[in-house]
Design a protein that fits this description.
Two copies of one chain form a homodimer. Chain A has 507 residues and is an alpha/beta fold. In chain A, 41% of the residues lie in helices and 12% in strands. In chain A, helix 14 runs parallel beside helix 16.
């Protein structure tokens, strides 16, 4: 290749677009036009920089961009090369072959808000995700355990683990559950690669197209999307201050065959609501009466800031054969560890274990061994004490800040006793998606509530996660949120300030 | 509880069943009869041993058994307790609710051979599973890396990872693939929690009930089971010495709409066969002609003992839009690490990433970071050299031993150039399941071939894994296998020894 010739019509001094971008366009045109065929070796950064009399970092940036466009690739020590001629467009032979599930996914993907395109200059404070912040992990103890494990029989950390999980971890998880008054036998337990896997396995095992699933409404987005993608019909039942509404639940159960009821009794996602003990008993009683099984997702059951966790539905008398129960270490411990558990009647577990082999064969031995050792040392109990105190303080900070800022604004919010989330309802006439745009401009984000509804969405609702940030960031984030709120209100032309008392209203 | 009274009719001296077993029966009757209600605290080992004047280890064994029966549970430091009254039988409210998938699973579960009930007194040598042995892992380097990571920013090891995988790992996997002449852009890649997940995601995304999938026949059991469980129709195409038979493949593609062709071109499971270059080109050409996409499972593509790995189908010109390609670190590196990759057209990857979020949200950060560092150091390349030499020696040892023992027996076997497996065919009139029973009595096991067939199974076939044992154990295992073979043959009344030459026949 005569690179000088190929760049003869390149004008580095032309204004407008950044220099690296113009190099990208120039090379992209040469590649896409076929002048540079697949496999062509490009000049090194140094060579092209010398040729064009430009800075090497400009060339490096251009090459990076071309790599991300899929036009060139680089191989350490060998250089950069043109990729094989790309197809004329991004379409593919697979396009018209999606299953119904694959087709549904596309629609679900479009529900999620676009990634922020905020012009906010600094770091955005995110209240969007229910993901614990790194400062909450038992980082030092994990590191110490890892080092001890590496000094021991390291080979065991990489061996194949049985589909149902490592025996030691299984035993310790059963003990942990017994401590929450949930008694289960070994045959009723399986270890999951995180509790989303439990939802997927349960959907696979129990849902055919058209099957009826009952959920709280609103409920967990990734449960809705999984059930929907399996083409189940979902009936959402609203919540009152104690949990899922009994009258409406009964009406649905009476009418016909429901495959299962999916419930999050503690720190419900997205509302943060914890079901009262009385409601727990009543729901189980209804389920027994109509012989309808319950799929209990106790994703944040270990997080409770007022008197300790309530017993799960599965721990109540008569629940053993009716309730499939799952939990996770992702919320109270660390999101990247990807470990959860599921308790079900032994015959269900037997099949779920088989289905898990078809789904991901087994779960990482390394993470299971790490967690086993953490549990064996009794560290999880101590960690829960610490983390419950930490998250309680974050919750209180957020509630306090919201009350100070939004006290007279007509905004309503729930006071969660546990979990990760705080549910907020804007005054009539505002909507959370628009509020999100205003908020992103102010440097704060959250999750709009509409994606969590099964039935008609309340566009005024939104979910704030209070576990992701420290108290300073929470205070700052709520200030930004209120600044966004005032701008939004101003844009709507609302001049009068609503003087009603702040409400801690339960939906 | 007056335990003396409760054991008044217990006769420790009665003959027949073992003592611990009789304690189990006695306590089980008390629990199931309601005399010991849920929550009752049992005597400690020491107390009951003293009471019954028995050894403490006998009591411990009885309690263990009761725990595994789900009748009691124990809590460290608190003692052992009776579980809540179990249901009258093992049935459950979920029983009649399985989906079609859940129903299919049950049938598939019944295909798998029962776990060995061999009376063999020593350790059984297993040639059954395609799972690398612990002595092949880069254990020391893994341990060293883990320690370094633990000393660094340990928090990062437990954070939430993007569904598509850690950026550094993604970049390094693309580089590894480029080294195998497979060029892909960042948007075409996703990281998997092991390659079984790829099969599951692809099934979910592309298969509806009744859809047609073409596979090699025989093929990977867990692929068949996954496709079947999704209620796809599978058409299996036999193999010849170069790979899947072109004439039969063409006949099927001609006839109608095939969703995809699932292929393992290198070290095919279970036959160990590696598709020739010419056949690779021809298969791709056929797929292009009939516009039928290929799902290429390159699970052992990095393992080749004769001249290095052949390029995958995806690396051939014209394959980019047609081939979904996946690979795994479970075979060449360590089975417990649970990491694989998938390359597909960008729009397919976009949806698969979304489906992965619905399936397990994301993959462990810890294992991804460990693997990234291993790749970054260039250690994977060095490991592959070592492991290919090690496995080549094991293959050669097994081939040599088989030839010496079975040379004149009428048994046929394939000589694999790569992968993990060696495919064996017994003489007409024998079958592999019966041979397995004989073999287990001799202290050796393998995988019967029949589970791997899509169409009519050849009952004479079986699969031997040559990577799981060191050369000494392989020699010993093959001797045992031949001892079992002679006993089986004697049982059949075959006295004459077939004097034909040993054959290295390709199926």
């Amino acid at each position: 290749m005569n690179w000088l010739d190929l760049f003869s019509d390149f004008d580095g001094s032309a204004g407008g677009r950044p220099l690296y971008r113009r190099i990208v366009d120039h090379l992209a045109a040469l590649i896409q036009g076929g002048t540079l065929p697949g496999g062509t070796r490009l000049p090194t950064n140094r060579e092209l920089a010398a040729l064009l009399q430009l800075d090497r970092s400009t060339i490096a940036r251009a090459y990076e961009e071309l790599i991300s466009m899929g036009l060139i690739y680089s191989h350490v020590g060998r250089g950069s090369f043109v990729c094989d001629a790309p197809q004329p467009d991004r379409t593919d032979a697979w396009r018209d072959r999606y299953s119904n599930y694959g087709g549904e996914l596309k629609q679900l993907m479009e529900c999620l808000p676009d990634p922020s395109v905020s012009s906010y200059p600094g770091a955005v404070i995110s209240f969007a995700a229910g993901i614990p912040s790194a400062d909450s992990y038992p980082e030092e103890e994990f590191a110490a355990i890892i080092k001890t494990l590496a000094d021991g029989n390291a080979g065991a950390l990489f061996k194949f683990s049985p589909a149902g999980g490592e025996p030691t971890l299984r035993k310790l998880v059963l003990e942990h559950l017994a401590g929450r008054s949930l008694k289960a036998s070994d045959g009723e337990l399986m270890i999951l690669s995180g509790s989303q896997q439990g939802i997927d396995l349960m959907s696979n095992m129990f849902l055919d197209a058209g099957d009826l699933v009952v959920t709280e409404d609103p409920t967990y987005f990734w449960a809705i999307s999984n059930f929907r993608a399996h083409r189940a019909r979902i009936v959402g039942i609203p919540l009152d201050e104690e949990g899922i509404r009994l009258d409406m639940l009964q009406a649905v159960l009476q009418k016909g065959r429901v495959k299962f009821i999916y419930l999050m009794p503690s720190g419900q996602n997205p509302t943060g609501l914890t079901m009262s003990m009385e409601r727990r008993r009543a729901v189980l009683e209804l389920a027994r009466r109509y012989n309808t099984p319950i799929f209990e997702d106790d994703f944040s059951g270990d997080l409770d800031y007022e008197g300790g966790p309530l017993p799960p539905l599965r721990a109540l008398p008569g629940a053993q054969s009716l309730v499939v129960y799952q939990g996770t270490f992702s919320k109270a411990l660390a999101p990247g560890i990807r470990l959860g558990w599921l308790v079900a009647p032994a015959p269900v577990v037997e099949r779920l274990n088989f289905a898990k082999r078809g789904s991901d064969l087994s779960t990482s031995s390394l993470t299971q061994t790490l967690l086993s050792e953490f549990l064996r040392r009794g560290s999880y109990g101590r960690h829960l004490e610490r983390i419950n105190a930490l998250y309680a303080a974050r919750r209180d900070t957020m509630l306090g800040a919201l009350e100070r800022s939004f006290g007279e604004s007509g905004v309503k919010f729930l006071r969660p006793r546990g979990g990760l989330f705080l549910w907020m309802t804007l005054p009539e006439g505002m909507d959370a998606r628009t509020f999100l745009s205003f908020s992103e401009q102010e440097g704060v984000s959250f999750s709009p509530g509409d994606i969590c509804y099964v039935g008609k969405a309340d566009p005024c609702t939104l979910r704030l996660s209070f576990i992701q940030n420290d108290t300073t960031a929470i205070e700052e984030g709520v200030e930004r949120l209120f600044a966004a709120f005032r701008k939004y209100r101003r844009a709507l032309g609302v001049q009068t300030i609503d003087k009603t008392e702040p409400e801690h209203v339960l939906i």
